[in-house]
């Protein structure tokens, strides 16, 4: 395969500098732990919805899902559409509950709902699982970058890991949200350039139907069987609604209605954009029929169809996808380390200034541990084998008490512990049996965990203090949360509008400059057109920032 050129490296460097600059700029608006971990509850539904989408969209999509798209076709879109339903469920159930809980970390409520040991158990185990999961994501982008550019794997991992850590440590949740929006734009336009090129190179839909008829069906291959799809959808509904970054978007919203809008926007993006992102990988089966490794379909197609400079934009989009996930994960994991472990166990009387410093130190620590750990993932069978075990064995029993405990009041503390212990044991036993398929093992584990947790509610506690505390908590959940009155500070909003204007100006200029060398080709013309749109958007943000300062982040 071809490798990157000078223009590509320039694009990637400018992108990295832009992301770091955003974090450094936003550090000036961080005054307390509420700003650092939930943006002062001033996150608009538009930015929150885009961020929610981006935090679920890592290079895993461009590697694992692209591999499925290459091998089996449109079934990859069927599988990724499973992400629509967690957002819809959040609209009707979870968005209001997380907002009403009044929390700063996703497991903070567990002490009120169950008890202090439960909060600590799920905090420590959750942090461990998050860190391991983040290692896999960073490992994936390292593999992708190495395949595309020839850059040593260690260099790619360290470079990407440290850039994410820098802007997240300084800018906190504001940096996560703003960079997610900018990264979404880069990802969208970069991929949009590739789609018509892939369509043309594959000879159009009719030719694809003739060459790969089975792959043009939405249920095809082993992963397209009805039972596999059913179990996968149930798993994603559970996994996403229990994902800490997913929860964080809803309790950081300005109002309950904004939280519902975040859910609807996320669902809409999950419906539309998988088609755009995965179509090139489906077309790659026609364009590059002899590809040895299906998971390299995306990078191979990019290297074949995209000229220099624009390839750098696409690789920046890959960075954008994974960096959005990692920055959000670093921030929310640090919130648990700071709020649920350090402040709860060691320094309950810590000053606001101290706790903000601790928050930044925890974020940096998470970033460093993930970066170092990612260098060694390959020794344990690679990212996707490890991800299968993490999700199929550990995630389900850890998530069910969290997402069901805020809905049902009867299940007891011992039920949460039993769900964790019995669920993990069941998952290990089932996955070690080669006669049991992954989907059957996962389905059984889900049923067992739900049965154990809800079953604990058949035996009501005799602890009057516990019952009174839980009663007060669910009474709070039944009452609408008050709207945030300080989330719309005009100085912050003006600064953010100007930051968006600058970021979109840089992004647009980058697209135009990288498109000019290929202006005679479709790819160059699309890049220039994308750049013009970004610059027009920059003008709109600048106008809003120069106006009254009113608006939403």
From TrEMBL:
Superkingdom in the source lineage: Bacteria
Topological category with respect to the lipid bilayer: Multi-pass membrane protein
UniProt entry tagged with the keyword Transcription regulation: no
Annotated compartments: Cell membrane
Gene3D superfamilies cross-referenced by the UniProt entry: Sodium/glucose cotransporter
Transmembrane annotation, as ranges: 12-30, 42-68, 74-95, 138-167, 173-199, 225-242, 262-288, 355-377, 389-408, 414-433, 440-460, 492-514, 526-543
Keywords on record: Cell membrane, Ion transport, Membrane, Sodium, Sodium transport, Symport, Transmembrane, Transmembrane helix, Transport
Keyword Transmembrane (UniProt): yes
Principal location: membrane
Catalyzed reactions per annotation: L-proline(in) + Na(+)(in) = L-proline(out) + Na(+)(out)
Pfam family name, one: SSF
NCBIfam families tied to this protein: sss
Stated family: Belongs to the sodium:solute symporter (SSF) (TC 2.A.21) family.
Listed name of the protein: Sodium-coupled permease
Record organism: Dyadobacter beijingensis
Lineage of source species: Bacteria, Pseudomonadati, Bacteroidota, Cytophagia, Cytophagales
């Amino acid at each position: 395969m071809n490798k990157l050129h000078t223009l590509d490296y320039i694009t990637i460097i400018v992108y990295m500098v832009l992301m770091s600059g955003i974090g450094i700029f936003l550090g000036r608006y961080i005054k307390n732990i509420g700003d650092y971990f939930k943006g002062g509850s001033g996150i608009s539904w538009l930015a929150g919805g885009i961020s929610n989408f981006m935090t679920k969209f890592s290079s895993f999509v461009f590697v694992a899902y692209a591999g499925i798209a290459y091998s089996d076709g449109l079934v990859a879109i069927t599988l990724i559409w499973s992400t629509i339903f967690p957002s819809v469920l959040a609209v009707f159930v979870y968005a209001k509950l997380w907002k009403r809980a009044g929390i700063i970390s996703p497991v903070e409520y567990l002490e009120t709902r169950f008890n202090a040991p439960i909060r600590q158990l799920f905090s420590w185990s959750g942090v461990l699982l998050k860190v391991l999961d983040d290692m896999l994501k960073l490992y994936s982008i390292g593999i992708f970058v190495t395949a595309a550019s020839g850059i040593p794997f260690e260099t790619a991992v360290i470079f990407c890991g440290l850039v994410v850590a820098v802007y997240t440590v300084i800018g906190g949740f504001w940096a996560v949200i703003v960079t997610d929006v900018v990264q979404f734009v880069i990802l969208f336009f970069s991929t949009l350039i590739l789609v018509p090129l892939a369509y043309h190179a594959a000879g159009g839909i009719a030719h694809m139907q003739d060459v790969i008829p089975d792959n043009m069906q939405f249920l095809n291959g082993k992963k397209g069987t009805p039972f596999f799809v059913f179990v996968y959808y149930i798993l994603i509904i559970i996994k996403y609604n229990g994902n800490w970054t997913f929860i964080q978007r809803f309790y950081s919203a300005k109002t309950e209605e904004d939280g519902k809008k975040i859910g609807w926007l996320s669902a809409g993006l999950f419906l539309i954009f998988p088609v755009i992102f995965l179509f090139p990988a489906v077309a790659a089966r026609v364009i590059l029929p002899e590809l040895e490794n299906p998971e390299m379909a995306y990078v191979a197609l990019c290297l074949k169809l995209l000229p220099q400079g624009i390839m750098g934009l696409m690789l920046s989009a890959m960075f954008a996808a994974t960096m959005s996930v990692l920055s959000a994960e670093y921030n929310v994991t640090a919130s648990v380390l700071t709020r649920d472990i350090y402040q709860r166990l060691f320094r309950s009387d810590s000053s606001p200034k101290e706790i903000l410093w601790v928050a930044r130190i925890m974020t940096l620590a998470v970033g460093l541990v993930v970066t170092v750990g990612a260098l060694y993932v390959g020794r344990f069978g690679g990212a996707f084998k490890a991800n299968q075990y993490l999700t199929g064995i550990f995630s389900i029993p850890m998530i069910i008490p969290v997402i069901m405990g805020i809905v049902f009041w009867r299940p007891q503390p011992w039920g949460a512990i039993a769900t964790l212990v019995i669920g993990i044991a069941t998952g290990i036993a089932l996955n070690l049996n080669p006669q049991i398929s992954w989907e059957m093992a996962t389905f059984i584990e889900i049923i067992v965990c739900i049965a154990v947790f809800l079953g604990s509610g058949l035996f009501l506690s005799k602890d009057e203090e516990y019952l009174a505390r839980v009663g007060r908590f669910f009474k709070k959940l039944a009452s609408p949360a008050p709207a945030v009155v300080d989330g719309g500070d005009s100085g912050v909003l003006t600064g953010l509008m100007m930051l968006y204007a600058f970021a979109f100006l840089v992004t647009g200029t980058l697209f135009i400059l990288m498109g000019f060398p290929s202006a005679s080709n479709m790819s160059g013309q699309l890049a220039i057109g994308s750049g013009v749109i970004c610059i027009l958007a920059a003008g709109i943000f600048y106008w809003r920032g120069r106006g009254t300062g009113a608006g939403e982040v």
